[in-house]
Amino acid sequence: MFAIPKAKIILLLFSLLVTTSMLAQDTKMVLIKRGAYVPLYGTTDKKTVEVQGFNVDVFPVTNAQFVAFLKKNPEYSRSKIKGLFAEKSYLAHWESDFNYGKNNLSNAPVTNVSWFVAKKYCECQGKRLPTMDEWEYVAMADEKRIDARIKESFNHYILSWYEKPKTYANPVGGTFKNYWGVYDMHGLVWEWTSDFNSIFLSGESRKDKDTDKNLFCGSASINATDLMNYAAFMRYGFRASLKAKYTTRNLGFRCAKDLK
Question: What is the residue range of the signal peptide feature (predicted)?
Answer without folding.
Answer: 1-24
